[in-house]
Amino acid sequence: MKKTLAFFTTFLYKDFSKFCNEKLQKIGLSKGLLYFVIYIGRHPKCSPGNLSSELRFDSGHTTRALEKLVQNEFVLREKSESDKRAYILSLTEKGEEALKVIYSLFSQWDEKVFSDIEEDERTQLISLMEKIIQKKGENKWNIQ
């Protein structure tokens, strides 16, 4: 098999998933809900439709994910003041704590993966990945 970016990113994604699963389960989350929590944390008062669009999930999937997050008290779903037919989303205190755990998992995994990699190589890899994401117009997350 030819060495491809798709192969390596898939391998790393699976490794990250395995790394996170046990730790997320301890706080009552699954990896499938991880990016919902991150997005709502970065975009408080977003709408379910906006969340669905930005994460590229269909509305049914988003509704089911939000229902789990609301039931488990990670997310608060409230009627919009400006449009009573619409809802706005925000993290609860429990959701904010989960977000801290999630960010910590990202950092811990990076440290694990980069433990034997020189700092300049790490910087170069991150820079190239950012370039690919920006070229695709996918920096809506304002990653810093």
UniProtKB/TrEMBL annotation:
SMART domains: HTH_MARR (SM00347)
Assigned keywords, A-Z: DNA-binding, Transcription, Transcription regulation
Domain of life from the UniProt record: Bacteria
Domain (HTH marR-type) ranges: 1-134
Pfam family, one: MarR
GO MF annotation, one: DNA-binding transcription factor activity
Name of the protein this chain belongs to: DNA-binding transcriptional regulator, MarR family
Organism: Clostridium cadaveris
